[in-house]
Amino acid sequence: MSEPKAHELDRGEPDQPKPQERPRTPVLSGGAKAVLAVLVLGLAFGADQWVKRIVETHMQLGERITVIDGVMWWHYILNPGAAFSIGEEHTWVFTLVMAVAVCVSIFYLLRATSLYWVLVLSLLTGGILGNLTDRLFRAPGFGVGHVVDYISIGRFAIFNIADSCICVSMAALVLLVFLGINLDGTRENHEKKQAKHAKKETAA
User: Fold this and answer.
1) So which residues are the catalytic ones?
2) Sheet with 147-153, edge to edge strand ranges
3) 186 contacts: CB under 8 Å, gap ≥ 6
4) Per residue in 67-106, pLDDT tens?
5) Helical ranges in the chain per DSSP H
6) Cα–Cα dist 89/49, whole Å
7) Which bin fits 126, alpha (ψ -120 to 50), beta or left (φ > 0)?
8) Measuring CA to CA, which residue among 103, 88, 89, 98 is closest to residue 136?
9) Rounded Cα–Cα distance for residues 128 and 161 (Å)
10) Is the sign of the CA dihedral 123, 127, 129, 130 positive or negative?
11) Environment class of 65 (CB within 10 Å of its CB; exposed 0-12, middle 13-18, buried 19+)
């Protein structure tokens, strides 16, 4: 009885290609994520409320102080509308929208592990909470409170730190979506390219 040849012993299932590891942008563990989120959110919210308090204490309503002549002023106003004084006649609507927005932002923040998403969502949440606090607890009443605005640049609208945080974070959010960076740090665009490349190889 002849012994099986070496190539016959090696016969078996063909080697399957190892799945490529999904490339990731920097991700955070639970503890690091919590610390970063609290710091960024707290800084955005705290700075907004602190400066508003200073403005209320040291300026008269309507007062304007030159910071850079012809470019920037401190201008203390009370805004019943949305960011940049939009929709001043529908204060309660914006309060509801902001309440929903902060819930959605927190929902995604709790699920995010990507460093970039945690930063952006924390900044966004802090900004929304800053203005929402004004809506809920400032005059003339709960839910219809007026937001303190004080930064005036050129002929642009008068705004505050919370507005700035919201706008910067929204722009960053759009950029993350455009770049295909997911909440878990994976790159969607890369995965699509890999799938397209695999499909071409299969067809060939």
Assistant:
1) 149, 163
2) 64-68, 72-79, 147-153, 158-159
3) 22, 23, 24
4) 999 899 999 999 886 554 555 566 788 899 999 999 999 9
5) 6-9, 30-58, 91-111, 115-137, 161-179, 188-203
6) 24
7) alpha
8) 98
9) 10
10) positive
11) middle
Residues 6+ apart with CB under 8 A from 157: 84, 85
Other C-beta atoms within 10 Å of 184: how many?
A: 14
Q: How far is it, in rounded angstroms, from Cα 88 to Cα 112? A: 34
Q: How many residues does the chain have?
A: 204
pTM above 0.85, yes or no: no
C-beta neighbour count of 186 within 10 angstroms: 18
CA distances (Å), origin 17, targets 13, 14, 20, 21, 198: 12, 9, 9, 12, 12
- Joined together, the tokens standing for residue 101 give 């927005």
